[in-house]
Amino acid sequence: MGKQLTGKVALVTGASSGIGKATAILYAQEGAKVMLSDIDEQLGNEVTEEIKSMGAEATFVRADVAMPTEMEDLVQKTVARFGSLDIAFNNAGIGGEAKPIGEMSVEGWNKVIAVNLSSVFYCMKYQIQQMLRQGSGAIVNNSSILGQVGFANSAAYVAAKHGVVGLTKNAALEYSASGIRVNAVGPAFINTPLLAEAGIDQQAKEALARLHPIGRLGEAEEVAELVLWLSSAKASFVTGSYYAVDGAYLAQ
Known about the structure:
Elements: E1 9-13, H1 18-29, E2 33-38, H2 41-53, E3 58-62, H3 68-82, E4 87-90, H4 106-134, E5 137-142, H5 155-175, E6 180-187, H6 193-197, H7 202-210, H8 220-231, E7 242-245
Helix pairs in contact: 1-2, 1-8, 3-4, 4-5
């Protein structure tokens, strides 16, 4: 069986670890040339070298998704390096300040909205402009189960991830007739470095696992498989949709 993404160029934000890393590697395994981006340069370069060692083409560019000019530049660099932009996985995000709304700082709110929501607009704005020139493209935005439900002490994150779902639907309405598909994935709690960064220890991790009827946390590679499908020609009639990958979390 041939590789699903042979000849395609894919861009992944937040590609240094977790779901972004797993997806960038899977894209490469399926034949894509991959542009990786993140603010963590060291890890980003390590993942890029790992992909190159598989015999695939990959380049890393440090970029901050909260800066619109850097997202415009990232798309330009992708096209300059590989000749096109066929697939984009807008994955970069942070957990952010964990406090009730009345106690949350304005700075904490603004940072999460900038990195988790405004960034998806910036990314799509410039990705879509390029894909329109080509006449086709597939975009996958990383939302969350919290793009559908609330979670106490995570107001900014919940609001941002709900916003990502809305942005995704709107982009699909506006551009599906132009050959650009746009979908969102909604992972539940995934076993990635983001959990450690949020200060979640082993005991808290086990408590989180129990929130999922499947009885465990998800793995980054399990999300990547869904992102790959949505990015591929196999999902040719799928656009404007939100897909949970959540161990039945939202079925409760």
